[in-house]
Inverse folding.
């Protein structure tokens, strides 16, 4: 695993976050106009909650802002080879390169009329995940060969879970801002400058994009953005998951990303019970069920983001041994399971349901 560096200079970390915020906020509008001119838009249909064609090149802005700001910050924090053996810088470089490949994969899927096949997507994602795991390390759970495929599977699952969660204005942008901010603070707490810079950049980029993606959204992340942020978050949770790392212990992984795990599990179970294709999109996610209960789109984003904040806070307390991880994990998972079961009972498969009416001129 990467070596621990001294406490990183705050200016470099703050610059990463602020720089990414400004770049994402400024890049998004010209990309939105380009998408509209070229017809790169997500059209409404019976399985989607928006009501007018919306451009989806927002992920390009988030990826470019994150990559540029993270590289700049890592250089400014002084992660040189003589002091750390170059391990931390090299690790961040591998993750950023792999994440850039995932962003290109998602962008290709966005721009192709019929998208990419599931086999192609999983193949590229799996190859990128394997490179990260083999080159950057992984948590040791069983101490055997199973740890490598488990780590690769975790990255694949979480990456695509973020993609599935991207089904309503502002939800993924809000959740990623919360989780990446927590991971940045966790990395700072143990002196992992590279991981802190990376997550600071992702936090700023998603916050800057959220200005344009907050309801009513003027642009979407698209697969380029949702796959990119999911890949970065999943890799960072694994990056310092060994016994001496930032997120040590088996409780950290499910706690940090519990909201995306719960959403993906919910739709898979619900679709199987309803006899619907598991991989077919639909308005049956947690966000849609909260809308069915009467919440507005903005309230849904706040509630889901608030849940992510709570589970990240508990993970932080576990990390610093304020809570025992056994007690924290069992308690949080049990409470989540109760809420999950109640949401599962919300009817969402009646034909023609489009959610509560929105104010005139504001798309859902």
């Amino acid at each position: 695993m990467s070596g621990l560096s001294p406490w990183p200079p705050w200016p470099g970390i703050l610059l990463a976050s602020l720089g990414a915020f400004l770049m994402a906020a400024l890049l998004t509008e010209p990309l939105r106009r380009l998408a509209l001119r070229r017809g790169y838009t997500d059209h409404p249909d019976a399985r989607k909650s928006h009501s007018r064609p919306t451009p989806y090149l927002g992920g390009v802005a988030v990826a470019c802002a994150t990559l540029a700001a993270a590289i700049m910050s890592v250089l400014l924090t002084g992660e040189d080879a003589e002091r750390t053996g170059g391990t931390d810088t090299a690790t961040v470089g591998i993750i950023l390169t792999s994440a850039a490949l995932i962003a290109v994969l998602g962008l290709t899927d966005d721009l192709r009329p019929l998208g990419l096949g599931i086999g192609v997507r999983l193949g590229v994602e799996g190859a990128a995940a394997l490179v990260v795991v083999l080159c950057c390390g992984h948590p040791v759970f069983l101490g055997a060969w199973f740890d490598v495929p488990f780590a690769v599977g975790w990255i694949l699952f979480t990456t695509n879970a973020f993609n599935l969660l991207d089904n309503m204005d502002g939800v993924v942008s809000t959740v990623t801002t919360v989780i990446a901010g927590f991971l940045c603070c966790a990395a700072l707490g143990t002196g992992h400058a590279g991981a802190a810079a990376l997550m600071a950049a992702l936090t700023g980029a998603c916050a800057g994009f959220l200005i344009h993606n907050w309801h009513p959204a003027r642009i979407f992340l698209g697969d380029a953005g949702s796959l990119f942020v999911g890949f970065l978050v999943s890799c960072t949770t694994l990056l310092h998951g060994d016994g001496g790392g930032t997120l040590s212990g088996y409780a950290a992984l499910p706690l940090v990303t519990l909201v995306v795990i719960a959403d993906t599990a919910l739709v898979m179970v619900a679709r199987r019970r309803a006899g619907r294709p598991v991989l077919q999109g639909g308005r049956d996610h947690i966000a849609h069920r909260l809308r069915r209960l009467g919440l507005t789109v903005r309230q849904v984003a706040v509630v889901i983001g608030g849940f992510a904040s709570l589970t990240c806070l508990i993970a932080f307390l576990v990390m610093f041994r304020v809570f025992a991880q056994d007690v924290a994990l069992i308690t949080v998972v049990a409470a989540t399971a109760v809420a999950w079961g109640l949401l599962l009972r919300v009817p969402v498969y009646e034909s023609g349901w489009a959610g509560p009416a929105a104010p005139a001129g504001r798309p859902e």
Summary: Residues 10-38 form the longest helix (29 residues). The longest strand covers residues 41-42. The two ends are 44 Å apart (CA to CA).
